[in-house]
Backbone:
């Protein structure tokens, strides 16, 4: 399997990557707080489309996360949740390849969040940059709440409950994945010392077969007695290759290798989503808060109207004035949608006043409508067959919940909470 670039992973203590059990599970979530637009498509969703073919993916609707900011008017969540799922399906997110689910249908996320909250220092949450940034930015809402402070901890629970190895997120979310790594490490440290750990690790090693068992012990000895980092790497690779051992056993073997306890939560890595190059109607980044969006499946007449009336080079007042594409938001959109021929035609025509701005926009309008056509069509089909959509989500929730339940059992056991 391919390894993605570890763009946002920081080396853990000791300068090496600790506790990554090499698992190839990807998890990401999206908050249902409004209609998706072309910025989401060219940024997040195209990235998900690529990942779903390379990894075991879990994609979910983060409705509880939406609640942290929308608690005063929760209607937006119900209004947008199913449209968002339809949008995912319409762009080609494949429920056969990725598990699609809704956060609040997996109550184990809330249980894990609560359990983690007991040992999470307040200062860890207060220093997450988005905490103060968002409070500043969303001044019209009161975000001095318990839930909002806990936002990144709930996100941590979302991630580690599935033992996800990779988390595709934008730049603004990298600090949250960093927090998840710290929380995972702390949990393993506090609760990873299960009774009979060594015997269990030895048993697990036996399950790899005679040859691998011997190799594992040799490498472990070289690492622990001589600090041989290469041996550590080889042993990790050996564990990653094993097909026949359970996740729990693999975690024991990772922990045993390094001389610690069981690795209950592997540390996730952020997979930085390349910044969306999708410009909005005014040339700034496309974003709901700038009011410059084109909806993913907005009515074609409105799309055409929005593009026809979008601003151009302000110096081009009359048709006969030459313009400069570099000063024009329409040109930014051509970068996304047009081939070299059209781009050349724009540059020449604009600078010489050979074409008018409406002429210039025509191929762009056509390209956007062409891109949206099949998305709109598939969305319509799903809208007319909500039963299918609901059953896709039902299946995804069941699959996710199986994993989450298993993790919680392990967590309760590790924390000594099995008395109930
Ligand atoms: N906080 C994320 C956002 O605003 C959404 C989210 C919630 C998420 N839980 C997650 C993303 C877990 C990745 C993994 O975009
Ligand atoms: Fe912008 Fe095109 Fe008009 Fe030039 S011709 S100002 S690039 S819209």
Residues:
């Amino acid at each position: 399997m391919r390894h993605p670039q570890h763009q946002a992973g920081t080396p853990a203590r000791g300068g090496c990557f600790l506790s990554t059990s090499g698992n190839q599970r990807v998890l990401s979530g999206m908050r249902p707080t409004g209609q998706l637009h072309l910025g989401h498509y060219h940024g997040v969703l195209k990235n998900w489309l690529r990942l779903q073919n390379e990894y075991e993916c879990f994609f979910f609707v983060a409705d509880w996360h939406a609640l942290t900011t929308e608690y005063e008017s929760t209607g937006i969540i119900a209004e947008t949740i199913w449209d968002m799922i339809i949008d995912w399906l319409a762009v080609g997110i494949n429920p056969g390849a990725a598990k699609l689910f809704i956060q609040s249908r997996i109550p184990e996320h809330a249980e894990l969040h609560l359990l983690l909250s007991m040992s999470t220092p307040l200062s860890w949450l207060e220093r997450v940059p988005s905490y103060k940034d968002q409070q500043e930015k969303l001044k019209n809402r009161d975000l001095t709440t318990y839930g909002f402070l806990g936002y990144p901890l709930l996100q941590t629970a979302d991630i580690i409950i599935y033992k996800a190895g990779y988390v595709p997120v934008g730049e603004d979310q990298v600090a949250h994945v960093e927090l998840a790594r710290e929380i995972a490490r702390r949990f393993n440290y506090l609760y990873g010392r299960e009774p009979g750990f060594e015997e269990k690790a030895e048993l697990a090693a036996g399950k790899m077969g005679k040859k691998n068992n011997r190799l594992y012990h040799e490498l472990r000895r070289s690492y622990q007695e001589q600090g041989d980092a290469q041996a550590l790497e080889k042993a990790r690779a050996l564990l990653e290759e094993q097909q026949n051992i359970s996740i729990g056993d693999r975690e024991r073997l990772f922990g045993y290798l390094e001389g610690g306890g069981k690795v209950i939560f592997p540390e996730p890595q952020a997979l930085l989503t390349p910044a969306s190059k999708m410009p909005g109607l005014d040339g700034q980044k496309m974003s709901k808060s700038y009011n410059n969006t084109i909806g993913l499946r907005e009515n074609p007449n409105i799309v055409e109207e929005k593009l026809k009336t979008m601003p151009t080079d302000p110096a081009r007042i009359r048709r006969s004035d030459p313009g400069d594409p570099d000063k024009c938001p329409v040109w930014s959109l051509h970068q996304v949608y047009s081939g070299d021929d059209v781009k050349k035609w724009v540059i020449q025509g604009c600078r010489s006043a050979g074409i008018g701005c409406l002429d210039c926009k025509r191929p762009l309008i056509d390209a956007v409508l062409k891109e949206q056509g099949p998305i709109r069509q598939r969305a319509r089909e799903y809208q007319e067959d909500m039963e299918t959509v609901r059953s896709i989500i039902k299946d995804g929730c069941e699959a996710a919940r199986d994993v989450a339940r298993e993790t919680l059992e392990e967590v309760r056991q590790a924390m000594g909470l099995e008395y109930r």
Remarks:
- Residues 386-415 form the longest helix (30 residues).
- The radius of gyration is 25 Å.
- Residues 312-313, 316, 323, 325, 328, 330-331, 346, 350, 355, 357, 360 surround iron/sulfur cluster (ligand 2) (CB under 6 Å).
